[in-house]
What does this fold into?
Amino acid sequence: MTTFPLHPPRLFSLRRGFFLQPLQLKGWHLFLLLVACEALLTWFYQSRILTREVYHTLLQAQLDAQRIDALFDLLQRMSLWGFATIPLIIGLRIMLVASLLQLPLVLRFIDIPFRQLFRIVTFSSLIFILLEGVRLLRLSGIPAEQLTQADLNWMPLALTSLLQLEMATASVQGFFNHFNLFEVSWLVFLYFGLSRTGQLRKRDAGLVVLVMWTVVVLFQWGLTLYMERM
It folds into this structure.
């Protein structure tokens, strides 16, 4: 008599493994992907959003047309340097967050390699590419002559829009802009990344992420407030 296996076919496990393959990328692979996406979004923002017409719309009350054109041409020439600094800025940002995550772990003698934390932070930061994509999609639909500074500062799904703080100071907007769905998703990815290391309990992983985020928010808010008062 012919018998049949009771376990499910291997096709399911192969498909499941196929979809998990992107999660097995190394940290530097994810870093290069993040840099490439950020460079592409920056190019689109500078070439399709911040056009010469937008500069005239935003600065016509402060500068004459000739000075606006000169400023625009200067910034266009400097844009190449901006692209060159993208890997440096992203790398410093990721290392800062990874260091803030590692500090409480070191104090509690929990050994998680820095390269593993770097990979967790890099993978989690990919959510901000989606955030920038949503912002650019909205900005691209606004005519240049109607674009305002409030539109450029708009943060999707943030507490700033809910509380109607578009006319508030930069420090206030910057603080409440941190409370958005994309940043919450970033924190969730960090939490699950730390939990999956097997070195932390879930409660401790959540506490480490919360402390790191609090330090980042307060530092950025304080820096913006200091710049306002200069």
The chain has eleven helices and no strands. The chain has one domain: 27-229. The radius of gyration is 22 Å. The CA atoms of residues 34 and 65 lie 37 Å apart.
